[in-house]
Amino acid sequence: MTNIETENLTEYILVEYRWVVVMAFLLPLSFLWKVWSCVRNYVVFTLSSAPKMHHKKVKDVQNQVKEWIKAGRTTKLCTARPTWQTMSFRHGVYKKTFTNIKVNLVDVLEIDTKNMTVRCEPLVTMGQLSRTLEPLGLALAVVPELDQLTVGGLVMGTGIETSSHVHGLFQHICTQYELVLADGSVVTCSKDENPDLFYAVPWSYGTLGFLTSAVIKVVPAKKFVRLEYHPYSNLRDLAARFSEESLKKAPHQFVEALLYTKDTGVVMVGDMVDEVGSDGRLNQIGKWYARWFFTQVRDHMEAGRATGRALVEYIPLRDYYHRHTRSLFWELQDIISFGNNFIFRLLFGWLMPPEVSLLKLTQPEAVTKLYERAHVIQDMLVPMDRLEAAVELFHEEFQVYPIWLCPFKLFNQPGQLKVTAGDWQMFVDIGVYGVPKAKGFKTESSTRRVEDFVSKNDGFQMLYADTYTTKEEFRRMFDHTLYDKVRESLTYCKEAFPEIYGKVNRDVRK
Question: SS3 letters for 358-379?
Fold first, then answer.
């Protein structure tokens, strides 16, 4: 990050020597935070105090909303959670003028082994949840990769994993939501109880009410994932294999691909197993000294291309679920360029990764402007048969690698995401995170062209990042029929919350 204009010495240090700040301050603070969170969550869950306190905490949310009503409903509502604590790089400046409602709901409430569900409060993280379920031999059917992603963010936004070609998006494994509405009432909803609200909540971004709990499906878990790495040297063959694996009648439990150039990449397929087989080695990628996963995959690609054979490894289940956490996919290489060095991993790997919230909190304005001008963080969801064309366009407009490919089954259910025909349709999430190298890249115009392609090809844009669509374009991409109906039916809802577009469009949300 050189040649960036800074306003003072402190900002200059934060920009030019950001890695020093991360190593000296953010990594130790992140470690202490993780230790405290683990101990606190273990104690609360073990003593079963969370379910007893849940009603009281929900009542507190209700009381805050009722105070807003008494005050005349002159402002919009939002959660009081600071934007620096969220995983999104977007800055919610609207919070400065909205009434902030404190939603301190951070606990796993109960695990129902009979019905194979877990009930969680919205600020429960994926790391917290997988740690809680692992000793019980359970796991979520869909476990989005990053430890710090929350249940609430994944419900109100979206979440995806390499098991999504079987189970769908995170919203599809949720069976019930509890919300505090804009009139101060508490309501539960499911496909059988208040179904319109149930199907309208996903992708609503907190514009229908405050989520206070969710019931989520779990599945039996085994100790390891047997993972196969299949290297490819051209996009067509890779896309064909990726599609084939995703659409099999009896598919592997996990399917994923990484592209390292437009024509080179690796398709990975995996299944849970209880023991390490003789056809591959045990690779504990979650160890502090282990190399970042995406760099290991790149080496497997090179080796596989040389030998012409697929590689097999056995990875501990929880390590696999959170395989992209330690490097935040590949974003950390731009902050700590030597972070994958053996000496660094050996001495500091146990502190990785820094909390995203702390990275955001200490991010100077100059770096924020740089990210806005010369950094892409986008996930685009397109039908599987448009994968090749989409990658070609991403290469032309962004040229950011690696590219993450994750298949998912989109069910034909009420809500904002519609399939063109049948009970379901296979899509692929194309994730692009990094510094664009495409000639002539401009953040807004380049993203706008990609958004236009996605919309015209019956796809969707994940909304945790900036969207540059007009309101009309946004409504063409997402079906608002049910959403509008629900907002009209809920008392004070339109007074309390902006439309989704007002929270995700870069210009409007200001």
Answer: HHHHCCCHHHHHHHHHHCEEEE
Report how far residue 11's alpha carbon sits from residue 25's, in angstroms, rounded to the nearest whole number. 16
Q: CA neighbours within 13 Å on the CB side: how many for 129?
A: 36
Tokens 């059917």 found at = 141
Given a contact cutoff of 8 angstroms between Cβ atoms, the answer to whether 468 and 451 are in contact is: yes
Tens of each residue's pLDDT in the chain, 510 residues: 444 454 556 655 555 667 777 887 888 888 887 788 778 767 766 666 677 899 999 999 999 999 999 999 999 999 998 776 666 655 667 788 899 999 989 999 999 999 999 999 999 999 999 999 999 999 999 999 899 899 999 999 999 999 999 999 999 999 999 999 999 999 999 999 999 999 999 999 999 999 999 999 999 999 999 999 999 999 999 999 999 999 999 999 999 999 999 999 999 999 999 999 999 999 999 999 999 999 999 999 999 888 888 999 999 999 999 999 999 999 888 888 888 999 988 888 888 888 777 777 777 666 667 667 778 999 999 999 999 999 999 999 999 999 999 999 999 999 999 998 899 999 999 999 998 999 999 999 999 999 999 999 999 999 988 899 999 999 999 999 999 999 999 999 999 999 999 988 877 655
Closest CA to 333 of 394, 402, 426: 402
User: CA-CA-CA-CA torsion for 134, 143, 79, 468, nearest 10 degrees?
Assistant: 160
Q: How far apart are CA 267 and CA 15, in angstroms?
A: 36
CA–CA distance, 1 with 365 (Å, rounded to integer): 13
Please tell me the pTM assigned to this model: 0.91
| Alpha-carbon gap, residue 36 to 236, rounded angstroms | 48
User: Within a 10 A sphere around the Cβ of 196, how many other Cβ atoms?
Assistant: 15
Q: How far apart are CA 71 and CA 119, in angstroms?
A: 34
With b for 16 or more beta-carbon neighbours within 10 A and e for fewer, the 19-49 pattern comes to eebbbeebbebbeeebeeeeeebeeebeeee
